[in-house]
């Protein structure tokens, strides 16, 4: 954290180097060893020390908060305002340091002042103010660039989400225009307008003054272009990276707000949108835990409406053999845990084959194929799911060695599917004689000593890719006519 503070102190103190270079540049252009450079090092040192102290004061709330001794809201507000406050301080300091010595010298020795008296004093006050504006603009761009990096570091290290601030792209462009065009134009105008008195006022002729103004304008243009470009590109890069993460399905991370202009506001809106998407995804996933995923997706896509359907479907009904006996010897928490483990695997199998779990009935499971999503191979997929359940469930132990033998009944027929229930509480289920027959076939497994029973209607639709064995006609409770049943092997 101290590194972040040191970088800011260094940027503020760098103004001393700018003042020193500009003073020596004046000396070189003027080719006069007695000219201003004798004051240059002193002015630069005064600016560097004063700016360093100001940097320590301005960064104080941030530093204290990072050390756990301050208020985060105050520190975040200071981070947002740091470029503007640094620029204002630099202007006041630069204007004072450059103007006060001249005024003091004029008061102490009026006869030593350049010709023009009070006019010369006003001229130099305007000139030094323009230079102070340029230094302030330089510091604004310099610190604004630093603040972008600071916000990124605080976001990564401390998870600080900065507010966008009250700046604007237009404001930054106006600052760049002022630094690169308006201020240099005013300097050139003063040089031309007072060309006949220029040597008495500045100890420079018109050519030397033009050269200094041109060098300053070129330098400020470079500073403005470089830092303005970085200030616009880096927020866009962060936003683009966040968009790419969202496109990849990651809704957990946000884009750091690193700009106090419209780009920052755009990033805030983007983060708010991601929060809303994340909330909707959470609701969708939670919804999908209590409602079959196919149903949940269909309801979401139809904005809450799901029309009833009448369609030929394949029903798969499962039950655990001797579950009552198993439940009597297990404590409730262990029983629930084992059932959840069992259902998790069975549901994964049936859904992988396109089935929709519509009901959990104690230890039983009601699965439907071909509704609400059409599935031309629904009979074959139901048989495949039953065979995989037979292979995966009946050859493993749950918890501390508990065995769950699963019996399956499968039937194909006309069903009615849709949401049923009270006005404010609905469940999606299927109705029809085909559903009842699947449940009856599952129960017949106990009498016939089988694990999977398949109705003739399902066998006909499933195709020839299965090893069915006909068991003949069997009597089914609730039916006057016997039913042709088959078992199937892997």
Concise overview:
The chain has helices at residues 2-30, 40-58, 60-66, 72-108, 118-158, 169-193, 198-202, 206-247, 262-290, 293-301, 323-328, 332-352, 378-393, 433-448, 456-462; strands at residues 309-320, 356-361, 364-369, 406-422, 425-431, 452-455, 467-474, 483-489. With 490 residues, the chain is of the alpha+beta class.
Could you characterize the architecture of this molecule?
Strand 7 and strand 8 form a beta hairpin. Strands 1, 2, 3, 4, 5, 6, 7 and 8 form an eight-stranded mixed sheet that branches. The radius of gyration is 41 Å and the shape is rod-shaped. Helix 5 packs parallel to helix 8, helix 8 runs parallel beside helix 9 and helix 12 packs antiparallel against helix 13. By secondary structure, it is an alpha+beta fold. It contains 15 helices and eight strands. The two termini are 65 Å apart. It has two domains: 261 residues, no CATH class; 186 residues, Alpha-Beta Plaits, CATH 3.30.70.1230. Helices cover 63% and strands 14% of the residues.
Q: Describe the main β-sheet briefly.
A: 8 strands, mixed
Terminal CA distance: 65 Å
Task: Evaluate the radius of gyration.
Answer: 41 Å
Secondary structure tally: strands:
8
The number of distinct helices, counting runs of at least 4 residues, comes to 15
Q: How many discrete domains?
A: 2
Ranges where pLDDT stays below 50 over 5 or more residues in a row are 33-39
pLDDT averaged over residues: 81
């Amino acid at each position: 954290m101290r590194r972040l503070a040191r970088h800011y102190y260094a940027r503020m103190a760098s103004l001393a180097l700018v003042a020193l270079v500009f003073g020596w540049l004046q000396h070189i252009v003027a080719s006069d060893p007695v000219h201003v450079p004798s004051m240059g090092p002193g002015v630069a040192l005064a600016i560097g020390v004063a700016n360093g102290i100001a940097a320590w004061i301005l960064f104080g709330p941030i530093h204290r908060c990072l050390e756990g001794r301050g208020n985060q809201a105050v520190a975040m507000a200071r981070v947002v305002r740091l470029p503007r406050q640094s620029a204002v301080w630099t202007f006041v300091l630069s204007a004072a340091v450059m103007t006060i010595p001249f005024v003091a010298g004029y008061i102490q020795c009026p006869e030593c002042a350049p010709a023009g008296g009070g006019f010369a004093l006003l001229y130099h006050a305007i000139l030094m103010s323009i230079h102070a504006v340029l230094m302030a603009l330089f510091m604004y761009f310099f610190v604004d660039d630093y603040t972008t990096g600071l916000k990124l570091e605080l976001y990564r290290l401390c998870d600080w989400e900065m507010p966008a601030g009250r700046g604007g792209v237009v404001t930054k462009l106006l600052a760049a225009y002022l630094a690169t065009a308006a201020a240099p134009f005013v300097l050139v105008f003063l040089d031309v307008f007072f060309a006949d008195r220029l040597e008495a006022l500045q100890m420079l002729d018109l050519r030397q003054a033009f050269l200094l103004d041109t060098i300053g304008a070129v330098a400020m243009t470079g500073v403005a272009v470089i830092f303005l470009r970085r200030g616009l590109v880096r927020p866009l890069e962060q936003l683009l990276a966040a968009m790419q993460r969202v496109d990849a399905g990651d809704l957990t991370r946000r884009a750091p707000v690193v700009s106090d202009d419209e780009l920052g506001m755009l990033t805030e809106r983007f983060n708010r949108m991601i929060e809303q998407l994340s909330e909707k995804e959470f609701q969708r996933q939670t919804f999908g835990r209590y409602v079959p995923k196919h149903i949940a997706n269909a309801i979401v896509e139809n904005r809450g409406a799901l029309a009833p359907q009448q369609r030929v479907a394949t029903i798969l009904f499962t039950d655990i053999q001797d579950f009552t006996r198993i439940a009597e010897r297990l404590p409730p928490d262990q029983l629930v845990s084992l059932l959840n483990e069992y259902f998790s695997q069975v549901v994964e199998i049936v859904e992988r084959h396109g089935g929709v779990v519509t009901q959990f009935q104690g230890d039983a499971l009601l699965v439907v194929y071909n509704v609400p999503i059409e599935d031309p191979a629904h009979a074959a997929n139901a048989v495949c799911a039953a065979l995989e359940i037979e292979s995966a469930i009946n050859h493993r132990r749950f918890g501390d060695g508990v065995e769950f033998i699963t019996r399956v009944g499968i039937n194909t027929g006309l069903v009615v599917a849709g949401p049923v229930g009270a006005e404010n509480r609905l469940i999606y289920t299927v109705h029809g004689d085909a559903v009842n027959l699947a449940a009856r076939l599952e129960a017949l497994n106990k009498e016939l000593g089988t694990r999977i029973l398949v109705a003739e209607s399902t066998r006909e639709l499933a195709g020839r890719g299965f090893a069915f064995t006909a068991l003949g006609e069997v009597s089914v409770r609730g039916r006057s006519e016997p039913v042709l049943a088959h078992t199937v092997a892997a």
